[in-house]
Amino acid sequence: MLTAEQLGFRYAGVPVLRGVDLHVGAASMVAVTGPNGCGKSTLLHLLAGVETPAEGAVRHPAGTRLSLLPQRTPDIDGLPLTVAECVRIGRFTPRRRLGRHDRAAVTEIMERLDLAHLARRRLRELSGGQRQRTLIAQALVQQADVYLLDEPTAALDAASRARVHELLGERVRAGAAMVVASHDAGEAALAGAIVTLASPL
Predict the structure, then answer these.
(1) Is 105 a member of any domain?
(2) Neighbour-count burial for 93-121, b at 16+ CB within 10 Å, e otherwise
(3) Do the beta carbons of residue 82 and residue 121 sit within 8 Å?
């Protein structure tokens, strides 16, 4: 479903990643672990096509739908979005209005992540955990083939982490491929394979 071969990346000429190989098939999860600064977020951005590798290549079948949950999204707080509007963005497709199935999917994911009572709240009014659950809902409501999630549960309490882990498992069992960058050993244990990055320096 998604393959990376000998990926390398540099920031201002300084190596961040070197020689990274990764393969994630349908109905499987790969965890990416390693210390801060080892390039976990960069790897997910390369897999999503947000960044271009200095070496190596990322390959996936034509038409593969990818959903990226980045670790840092400061710009979104400046938008006057409600929780419901933010989640609905995950179902947006150019030249197509949201239909009944889209609205049902948004309602379901908000209920599963305990967001329904916050539907009309603005993002800037939320706690860190509420905001993170909203962004997770936006990522998971997408009909993606591959989900790329960067530290998805870092800001969540135990109950919210359990809800998210249940949803991740459901997506994988339904056939999705998933790459999760995480410092959480329990979260990494959910994956069928673990890729551990080390500092390139």
Answers:
(1) yes
(2) eeeeeeeeebeebbeebbebbebeebeeb
(3) yes
CA gap 99, 51 in Å, rounded: 33
Q: Which CATH number goes with the domain that contains 82?
A: 3.40.50.300
Boundaries of domain holding 117? 2-196
CA torsion 49→52→58→64, rounded to 10°? 20
Q: Are 42 and 4 in contact (CB under 8 A)?
A: no
Answer whether residue 77 is part of any domain.
Answer: yes
Quote the pTM value.
0.93
Residue 151 covered by a domain? yes
- Name 23's bridge partners: 3
| 73-119 per-position pLDDT tens digit | 667 767 889 999 999 999 998 777 889 999 999 999 999 999 999 99
> At residue 7, what is the residue type?
L
Number of domains the chain is built from: 1
Give CA–CA dist 190/196, Å, rounded.
Answer: 15
Q: What is the DSSP string of 30-47?
A: EEEE--TTSSHHHHHHHH
CA 195 to CA 44: how far, in whole Å?
A: 12
List, in order, residues 6 or more apart from 11 with CB less than 8 Å away: none
Is 201 within a domain? no
Q: What angle do CA 149, 184, 127 make, to 5 degrees?
A: 65
